[in-house]
Predict the structure of GcrA cell cycle regulator.
Amino acid sequence: MSWTDERVELLKKMWGEGQSASQIAKELGGVTRNAVIGKVHRLGLSNRNSGGAKAAEPKEKPAAAPAAAAPKPAAAPKPKPQPKTEPARPAAAQPAADAKPATPARRQIIPAGQPLPPQPSANEISPEALAKVNEVEKKAKKLGLMELTERTCKWPVGDPATEDFWFCGLPAQQGKPYCEAHVGVAFQPMSSRRDRRR
DNA sequence: CCCTGATTCGC
DNA sequence: GCGAATCAGG
């Protein structure tokens, strides 16, 4: 693959949108994130610093700087909110408080989108699967909300309002938001739904 | 571990 | 110019 105008354009566009190099690489296809990053640099749009990008403070010794620069005039020549369309996702799980968005809005934001499980509610799931889940929960990595990634099981365990709340965190299956065990109880063939005899 | 971008350097 | 390997964080 070569950097055709179109590809470069898409690259610029996506980079401008704050997409990560890997995402861009995935989108373009035929290139690795390294290739993308390399290109980005060659194009000179590495950091989207406000105009200028002076950069280059190698490692110059701070040279003392005794008086601790008191003046300090302005310092925010960035009144440009940039219409980034960050898909600040609408609280996937509703772990009530607890979740503190430690991630600087920009970029990424776990796609997650997937519907979170209805929690072990009144499900009539195969006892088999349930047992498996209980078993797996012992091995769970008990990750916090922020530790979740695209390949960690996002199955929540416990009461979000308690300290006893965490996410499975085991390796999720390709394409699925959960690990094997949880995929098992999360996606029911829609048959065992049978109305329990009343 | 997973992921980021940044740099280097042989091609 | 290109991008894998490597580096430096989170």
The radius of gyration of chain A is 24 Å. Residues 2-3, 31-32, 34-39, 42 of chain A lie near DNA strand C (CB under 10 Å from a C1'). The first helix of chain A runs from residue 5 to 16. The first strand of chain A starts at residue 156 and ends at 157.
